[in-house]
Amino acid sequence: MNNNQNDEEISSSKNSVPRLKLLDFSLRLSVIPLSVASLCLTVTNNEDNPDYGSIKFINFSGLKYMCCVAAIAAGYAVVAAISTWIRCLVNKTWVFFVSDQVMAYLMVTSGAAGAELMYLAYKGDVEVSWSEACTAYGNFCTKLKVALLLHFLALFCFLILAIISAFRAFTMFDPPNPINTQVEEIERT
């Protein structure tokens, strides 16, 4: 009975590897249009108001940072998606692990910068005498909101990719044997 159960576990784990690889590849492909769309919406976002003048994304360092990270994310996703299927690069588990972690953190920080600008545009900051801007620049705020939504969807993909790459990196090692650990502790004393 145990041999059959072990054989079933081995075959199910072999079947989960292609599914995990397909999920990894699909998420990497999903990041590309999400990041490119977020980048395009942000870069083309400008509005003129006859009373207050024009507003452009280039006026905000947080939006410029978000655009740079979105461009990097799209480029990295293309390279990583292609290298997912190249045998010699698939074995570079640690490279994917570190890169996915870095991209996830960059996406978080750039999303936070964009979200802060969005908050200030809608709420303003009374202490520094900034009034809210979305009543005067409604189209700008709407496009920024959509761009941030797309950016956060790409971030969500990278968070899942970071978990997948961590799983792959750390399943390469056997778990520590508690009996050997106890023996080593006794030998040290």
- The whole-number mean of residue pLDDT values reads 83
In the CATH scheme, what's the topology name? Answer: Butyryl-CoA Dehydrogenase, subunit A, domain 3
* Major sheet strand order: 1-2
Instruction: Please indicate the percent range of residues in DSSP E strands (runs of 2 or more).
Output: under 5%
Give the overall form.
Answer: elongated
Strand and helix map with partners:
Layout (H helix, E strand, L loop, with lengths): L1 H42 L2 E4 L3 E4 L4 H24 L2 H4 L2 H31 L14 H33 L7 H11 L1
Antiparallel strand pairs: 1-2
Index terms:
Butyryl-CoA Dehydrogenase, subunit A, domain 3, single chain, 2 strands, mainly alpha, elongated, 189 residues, two-stranded antiparallel ribbon, 6 helices
